[in-house]
Amino acid sequence: MSVQTTGSNGNGHGSSVPEEIDYDDPRTTRFEKVKAAARQDGVEIVHYEPQYPEKGSRLERRMNRTVSLFFLLTGLFGTAFVVLYIVWPWRYKTGDSLYKLYTPLLGVTLGLMFLFIAFGILTWGKKLLPKEVSIQDRHDGGAPESDRRAVGQTLTYMVEELGVKRRPLLGLAAAAGLAPVAVVIAAPIIGGLIKNPHADNQMFTTGWAPIKEPNGGTRLVRMTRDDGTPIRPADVSVGGQMTVFPGIPEGATNAHADSPTLLIHLRPDDAAVARASNAQGLPHDSYNRTGFMYGDFIAFSKICTHAGCPASLFEQQTNRLLCPCHQSQFQITENAKPVFGPASRSLPQLPLGVDDEGYFVARSDYLATVGPDFWERP
Ligand code: FES
C-alpha cells in the first residue's frame, strides 16, 4: 500500500518534496511512516528531537534509574496500603491507640503511592521521551482503511519510543510499581466481598442486646453506672434521671458509644401520660412500645437523632429533654418525639424490666436504630 505525501525535516526523517510512502517497503523507516500517516491525518510534525542523541548515555541511564525508582516506590507504598488495609487493627479497643493510626496510615500510603506514580509518569514524559512539536488540523468523518493502518504503525512506534524494550529496568520497575496500584483499587471492592462488614450486625445492635449463654439461653443486660455498679429502682428519686450503661465488659467505654441511655423516674401523673402515649405509639414508629416502662420509670437513648450529641438536659417541669448541640427538644411523655429544633425523629425507647435480684435490666435491645439517620435505616 502506498500514500502520496509531502514534508520537510530537520533531523533526517522525511523530505521536503512530495514522496510516495510504501508501508510495506522494509526500507521505509517507521518514523517516515508515522510522519506520513500524521500528515494524512492533517498533523504536521514540525520538530522532533530525541532527548539523548547518544543512546544509552550515562545521563539517560541515570534518568532511567530515577524513573524506575519512582515506580518501585509506587509499588512499595501500594503494597503497604494493601497490607495495612488487611492487617492493621481498626476497631476501638480500650487502652489501645493503634486503631487511631488506621485511617492516617491508609491515607499516607495511598497519597505517597499516587505521588510517586505522578513523579514517575511526568519524569518519564519530560526526561526520556523525545521532544516533539506537531500541528494538527481538525477534520470530520470516519477514518479510511489507510488511516487505520497508519494509526497501527503510530501506536507501535509510540510503544517503541517509550523505550521499554531498550530499558528493561524501566519496564520491570513500571510493572512492579503499577501492579500494586491495581490491587489498591481492587482491595476495597474485593475486601467487602471476602469479609462481610455487616456480619456482626453492629449497625443495628447496641450493648443492650441480650447476651447469648453457652447453654443456648439468653441473659438480659443489667443497667449500670459508669463504674459498673447495677441500679435498683430506689436509686433514682421521683423526677430524677440517671445516665446508665450496659453492664457488659467495656459497656461504659467508646466500644459501646451507641449505648448510653437516660433512665428517668417520672412523677406519677406524667408517667400515666407517658404510658398512654406508649400505647398509642407514633405514626412513623414501626414498633409497639406497650409495656416498655417499668412502673413510673422510662428509658430513652441518649444519642440525639439529629447529629449524635448526648441529649441529657432534662427539664423536670415540662418533661422535655434538650440536646445542647443544636437545641433539639424531645417530649419524654410523648414517646420522646422531637418538638423543637432540627431533630426529626423520636429518641428510641429501651424496654425496661427488673431482674430476680431487683436490678434494672433492658428487656431487649433498642428496636429502632439509635443516633442520626443513616442510609440503611430499615
Ligand atoms: S445533635 Fe442534637 S440537636 Fe443537633
From TrEMBL:
Tell me which residues make up the Rieske domain.
295-361
Q: Which UniProt keywords apply?
A: 2Fe-2S, Cell membrane, Disulfide bond, Electron transport, Iron, Iron-sulfur, Membrane, Metal-binding, Oxidoreductase, Respiratory chain, Transmembrane, Transmembrane helix, Transport
Q: Does the keyword Transmembrane apply?
A: yes
Q: Name one Pfam family in it.
A: QcrA_N
Task: Name a single GO cellular component.
Answer: plasma membrane
Region Disordered, annotated ranges: 1-23
Tell me which domain of life the UniProt entry assigns to the organism this sequence originates from: Bacteria
Identify its membrane topology class. Multi-pass membrane protein
- Transmembrane ranges? 67-90, 102-124, 169-194
Location relative to the cell: Cell membrane
What PROSITE patterns does the entry give? RIESKE
Q: Name one GO molecular function term.
A: 2 iron, 2 sulfur cluster binding
UniProt cross-references to PANTHER family, sorted A to Z = CYTOCHROME B-C1 COMPLEX SUBUNIT RIESKE, MITOCHONDRIAL
Family of this protein: Belongs to the Rieske iron-sulfur protein family.
- What is this protein identified as? Cytochrome bc1 complex Rieske iron-sulfur subunit
